[in-house]
Amino acid sequence: MPASQRGRTQTLILLFVLITSLYMTTYSAHVESGDARRLLDTVSSVVDYGDYLLDLSAWQFPPENFDTAHPLPLQSGNVEPLQVLAAAPLYALAKLTPLGLVHTVYLLNVIIGALAVCVLYSYARTLGYRERTSILAAVVFAACTVLWVYSKTFFREPLMLLLLLTSAYLIERLRLRSYRSLPLAAALFLALIGLVLTKASAVLAVPALLILALPPLHGVPWRRLLIAGGVILALLTVIFTALTLFGEVLGAGSRFNLLRILGEGTPRYFLTALHTYLVSPGGSVWGTSPVVLLALPGMMVLLRRGQVRYPVAISGLLLSFALAYAWLNGVHWFGGLSFPPRFLIPVIPFLLIGALPILDQLAEGRSVWWWVAAPLMLYGLWIQITGASLRLDAYVDLLPPEADRLIEWGGGLNVVQYLRPVMIPQLWGVYPADIAWTQIERPIYVGLFALMVIGAGFFIWRRSRGWPVLPAAFVVVLGVGLVDLYGADARYRAFDQSLVAALPLLETETDPGDVILLSSPRYETFFANAGKLWNAGRVISLPLQPGERPSEEQPAQIVADNPAALLTSQTIRLLHNLALTHDRLWLLEDGSPDIWWSARPVERFLSAHYYPVQYWRLGDFTWLVEYSTVSAPDQYAYRAPEATTDLVFGSTLHLSGYELPAGDMYASGSVLPISLYWQTDVPITGNYTVAFFVRDVNGAPIAQLDLAPGGGFRPTSTWIPDAPVWDNRAVELPADLPAGEYQLWVKVYEFTDAAHDLPVTSGEALDGVIGVLPVRIQVR
């Protein structure tokens, strides 16, 4: 390898280490928005199940369509696939190592940002700028633009930026070789395909790329140019037509349907969005990355030199993105919970390319432009430091009441006193820094990565021997830091031993086709980061229900006797759909019968409509329940049980009947559900437990479930005289159970200091306390 090539390779490696280290000083791995959660959930579904379904984020993106032909009626990620596929290797790496899943996936934009900086350096060198100028442009791009803030996120815009910049870079190199390099052409084709698969809006960049691809016009037949342009447009038409037709296969839904997208445009927010993107001091591309203002004099220099391509292409790129997003995005013009201007981020490196003539003068040392550039760079650096210091949603807490907590409030984008770099420092010391290392009280990692920045800068400047030690040291620090973070990050409930204990239990008890329901979103963060389940059920997180009490101090929105009134209608439809397509359901309950205020509405609903089989207590506030999805009798229908008994326990507790919804013939290993039909003559003061037994003809134990009536939700002390109480429960028969005839027994007892059995005062009894049901089941 020539010495110049070795030197450039060394610079690229050191630049990558410098930028990744810089971004790791503020690395957070905090899921910043609903868009990021949707993407992250899609990544886990692709790697774990090979589909794009939203399971862990179903609490935020609940199912909309229900069909028993689909066992999992979940929303699709409905997103262009490349970001998901790019993050999949990181997710897979985390699943195989002691690293957090979210922690590792959130390295993606750190890596992408560093790669984009390296591409800009190479681009500047290809355009003929000196090494010093190219390094200055790269460092300014990394530290003084919103690329830094977006390195903390999981948004797709950084990947779009990287691929768009790479495409333009490859076009420039091809142009220098008169378009006679097959490897470069193939690389360009892949970059363009990747660009489209990252965001369909990448089509907005096509005119600018075509301008950059123009060869010197003198001596080139216009006919050839027209043919080349026609071929490119035809290829784009074919690609988007194919993506429109097969977008569902890629999990992108209708994201590539350009006719639909164009039809959704609206002028309602157009002027507001356009003003924010291009003019406002707090939301425009120059307002949050002020160093790009150097593109104005820079492009003037290029025009004076007769170099028209880049000024025209850059201006066109900026205007096409601004105009199109302002028109097409409607109410979503701001980009949700994000840092402005989210949708114009891919344009930023091109504005810096336009600024290269000015940066070249700055790199010479003494230049009057430093009087302009230095304040812009320092202000840009301040914006990035403040923007990366706290969570994106912290800013709205300081806005005045008239802002109505809207992050896109006009005052915050146009009034100096409400700008982010002015307001955010007021929250320092009030809110914790949005930095993973300080969240786990390990600020030493911030210092170590800062040393990596200094070391990389030193080796770039001095070209000293021994530089290969730095990348190796970076990998070691990064690996140790991520392992430490995985075991200590309270944001992802790393210390919740009940959930840690749930993982091996779920792997042992559940099968790959099973569904594991989280009763509320509180445990979603743990499973998103640590839910490394192998050959186990699929975890679906339910929303917080209106009948739930999040804490002792917070009352439920709805209090009712009917369990269906305590759930959202979408949750009820989802549960019934899952029950119709699965033999059993698993519920990881965020609550406990031992805590008086814990309402547990999902568990209550399932216990009323289906049959609890087994309970595992994992902690003071965490239970795992297995349900048979055989449909239980309607508790609110005025009907008698199919079979009656004359069993009476004590003097008042009548077991008036029962139902065996699965009949009296069973296979070994199957579940036997039963609904007991209770009544009382007078109010009961105590709370009794009911034990249900399966015994062989000799009385040997086969299966048993001890449970308070109604899954614990119909305690006997609340029974109304003469009002019937349905009590659903089930037991699992042993897999090796011999064929034959088996008995069903019932016992009622109260456990205070010791067990106290109620005597059987009517009906067939054993030992005076066990009621024998007048039925025998057959096992084949």
Report on the architecture of this protein.
The chain has 780 residues and is of the alpha+beta class. It is built from 28 helices and 17 strands. Strands 8, 10, 11, 13, 14, 16 and 17 form a 7-stranded mixed sheet that branches.
E-strand count: 17
Q: Given the structure, what is the number of helices? A: 28
Gyration radius, rounded: 33 Å
Query: Quick check: average pLDDT?
Result: 92
Strand content: 5-15%
Helix and strand composition category? alpha+beta
Overall spatial form = elongated
Concise synopsis of the structure shown:
This protein is of the alpha+beta class. Helix content is 44%, strand content 14%.
What is the strand and helix layout of this fold?
Blueprint: H1 3-24, H2 34-49, H3 82-96, H4 101-105, H5 108-126, H6 131-143, H7 147-150, H8 157-176, H9 182-198, H10 206-213, H11 222-246, H12 258-263, H13 270-278, H14 285-288, H15 295-304, H16 309-328, H17 348-354, H18 356-363, H19 370-389, H20 410-414, H21 420-423, H22 436-439, H23 444-462, H24 469-488, H25 497-509, E1 515-518, H26 524-530, E2 538-541, H27 569-581, E3 584-590, H28 601-609, E4 611-619, E5 622-628, E6 643-649, E7 653-659, E8 665-666, E9 671-680, E10 689-696, E11 701-707, E12 725-732, E13 740-751, E14 755-757, E15 760-762, E16 765-766, E17 770-779
Parallel strand pairs: 1-2, 1-3, 8-17
Antiparallel strand pairs: 3-5, 4-5, 6-7, 6-15, 7-9, 9-12, 10-11, 10-13, 13-14, 13-17, 16-17
Helix pairs in contact: 1-5, 1-23, 2-3, 5-6, 5-8, 6-18, 8-9, 10-16, 13-16, 15-17, 15-18, 23-24
